[in-house]
Please model this.
Amino acid sequence: MIDYALVLANDLTDPDAMLRVCRLAAPHIDGVKIGITSSMVPGAAIFRRVRELMEDKPILADFKVGDISFPAQDGTFGGTNARIIETLMHWGADYVTVHAFPGWSSMQEALWAAHRAGGKALVLPFMTHPGADLFFGMPLNKRHTIDSLERTGIPKAAEVVSDCSTVSELILALGERMGVDGFIGPGNQPEILQAYRSRTSKEIWSPGFGRQDRRGRDLSEQFRHWARSVGPRSAAIVGSIIYNDPSPAEAAHGIRRILQQATDSAAISER
Model:
């Protein structure tokens, strides 16, 4: 992924409309995110059809995989996570989003399956919607956390959680220890992104722009705050502003210009 990438979140449920937006926006974006809502009707084959339009630009399967793992004695996995991810990447996905709450082995299987298929996994330590802090911001019970990790066979579990005070911080620490490829972070909450960046140098992909902003900021200001928080190893994920516009190509081109100006401004302010 290039620095300060622009990724289209194509959440349309009609396959023809979704593919049309991808085709029109493709020259102005650096990748596309496809979620469950866009693949329920056409199935996993939609990823291959989008691949034909995106050429070598990355495709993120936003399935938020969080099911069971089944570790085998030979070091392989055969659980539900592996089956989901292997299928998605067989059909053309490059990245997949993964939940951490099912536990260490679930994350481990997801990462194993993604890498085995030549893809990458992004973990979610927080989300963009109101109330996400109910779980992600929950204070950490360190004794329970250490005991659970040790039962799973994690060495030096106390070191992993030593400077973690919330579930979100624990997910970041586990992701770093496990070697995930990056994280999903809320673009509408710069202070949380700053906390991310203080703990990781990996890619941070951020949804939450446009209609999800709850601070009265225009898109340029949102991008500036985001860029200053996460730095260049990042991607801004934008959806409805593009796919709801009568001219998705013009909308994507305009957002690209705003993003470029905002990231240039952020780079200047850091000097």
